[in-house]
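thought: fold this chain, then report.
action: predict
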Amino acid sequence: MFKGKKGFLSAIAIFIIVLMTLVGCGKQSTDQNQNSSSENQSQVQNQNSSENSEVSGSITAAGSSALLPLVEQAASQFMSKHPDAKINVQAGGSGTGLKLVSEGSVDIGNSDIFAEEKLDADKAKELVDHKVCVVGFATVVNPNVKVDNLTKQQLIDIFTGKITNWKEVGGDDQKIVILNRPPSSGTRATFKKYALDGQEEAQGIALTEESSGAIKKAIADTPGSISYLALSYVDNSVKALKLDGVEPTVENITSGKYPIWSYEHMYTKGEPTGLTKAFLDYMVSDEVKSLVTELGYIPISDMKVSR
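observation:
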């Protein structure tokens, strides 16, 4: 214990020193926390700045019209998230997309078919395949055609010119009008491979349309017409036919019951970098997966069969 006045003053002095020390420590801790917070905020800002720089610039994706609706909408969503990025999306057909990306004219070549099915082996090896989803294809007719189902042999006979009237397959006495896609079309290649068993279509009897959108409109407007479309284009303006009694539905495609489908590829020449890589990563993200199903495509993870 402190005795007398002198001792009392000494106690007061010690108390003040201790109090000032505690206050100083508290201030130092607060300053350190504030500095740490500022540093963290600066790191986040720098990180965001770095991320934004990685997704700036402009790229072009071209090719498959079957994949076009998905790539267009995904690109729109991506650009809304990254205002400094510009993604140009074009159609032209799978063959065109593969040719352009192989030449280096575009950054991404969209295709319904594998590159080696259209390009020379050496050129195909230079491309990197990015599978983004699966698409089914349906045989479609004008809504007034009174046929709901075709066997595979009947389908082959129609497209090879052996059957020319709908009455031959249970419909009205009406001429069959075939609408085809050009040779560059991946949709045409897929349909020929899996619906026609690779048989050549008859020459000179079919009208040709360049894109899936044009085919859909022509089918809707042309009495007695028949063609094929990706399920992402099928709506009430056309009628989708069963094949051997099996409907072209997602469930039948994923289970392997319905055979006319393909992977949707987005090819790059070499490994992608920068904006191209960022967009391709986005195409297989959970955010785009919901868009895949909404637009009539199928996530690859849902497939119970493979090719």
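thought: worth noting. The first strand starts at residue 57 and ends at 63.
final: tokens above.
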